Amino acid sequence: MSVSSSRKITLILGAELEKLVTLPLVWLTLMGTFILNLVLAAAFTSAGLQGAAGTQSILKIGLASMGYLQAGFIILGILATCSEYTGGQIRTTLTTIPWRGFQLSTKLLSLAIVTIPMAFFIAASGVLYAFIMMRDTALVIEIDAMIKTLVGATGYLTLTTLLSAAIGVLLRRTTPALVVLLGHYFIVSPLLIDFSPSIKNFFPDTAGYYMYMPPSSDEINVLTPMQGTGVSMLWTLIFITVAIVFYRKRDA
C-alpha cells in the first residue's frame, strides 16, 4: 500500500521529533541554560538595583544575559545533529529515510519546533525576574514593546540554534563544532570590535543583537530590528544550504 506524500512528511517529522525529545542531553542542556539564565538575571538585576535604578530598562536588564544564554542554544543545535554520528546511528537513519536533503530539512524543522517555545520561555524568565524585582524603580515598559523584544530574542536564539546545527552537519563531530562556534561567538567576535567594528555588525551574533535589544538614544543603532533579522537569517540559510549540499554528496 502506497503512502501519500503528506503522510510521509508527517511520519518523518514525527520520527525526527521523537529522536530529538528523547535525547537526554537536549533536556539537560535546556535545563542548564534556564538555570544559568536565572542566575545571570539575578546578578544583572542586583547590579541594576545598586546603580542608577531609575534610569534602567527592565528589558535591557532582563536580556543582559543573552550574550551568555546563546551558548546553551549553540550546544543544543550541535547536539541535535552531531549526536547521530556517535555510534553510527546516522547510517540507520539514512537507510530508513534515503532522501537525505528532505531528512535533514525535517530534522531542522523539528529542532525549530522544540527551540521556539523553549527560547521564548527562557528569555521571558529573565525579563519576568527583572520586572518582579525592579517594578518599583525601573522605567515602565509597554506590553507591545516587551512582546516585540521577546519575539526578537526568540527568533535570534532559534536562528543561532539552526546555524549551529548546520555547522554540526558540516563538521559531524561535537567537539570541533563547539570549538569553532564558541570560539567565534566568545573570542573572535568580541575581538573584532576593536579592529573592524563596521564589518562586525554584519556577523550573525552582532546583527542578532539588534533583533531583540530595544533601540536606545544613548547608543548608535547601526541596524534596525528588521535589518538585524535579515542578516542573521541570511547567515543561517547560507549555512543550512551548504550543509544540505554536503550532506547529500558525501558518505555518512
From TrEMBL:
<keyword id="KW-0812">Transmembrane</keyword>
<protein>
    <submittedName>
        <fullName>ABC transporter permease</fullName>
    </submittedName>
</protein>
<feature type="transmembrane region" description="Helical">
    <location>
        <begin position="67"/>
        <end position="87"/>
    </location>
</feature>
<feature type="transmembrane region" description="Helical">
    <location>
        <begin position="153"/>
        <end position="171"/>
    </location>
</feature>
<feature type="transmembrane region" description="Helical">
    <location>
        <begin position="223"/>
        <end position="247"/>
    </location>
</feature>
<keyword id="KW-1133">Transmembrane helix</keyword>
<feature type="transmembrane region" description="Helical">
    <location>
        <begin position="21"/>
        <end position="47"/>
    </location>
</feature>
<feature type="transmembrane region" description="Helical">
    <location>
        <begin position="178"/>
        <end position="203"/>
    </location>
</feature>
<keyword id="KW-0472">Membrane</keyword>
<feature type="transmembrane region" description="Helical">
    <location>
        <begin position="108"/>
        <end position="133"/>
    </location>
</feature>
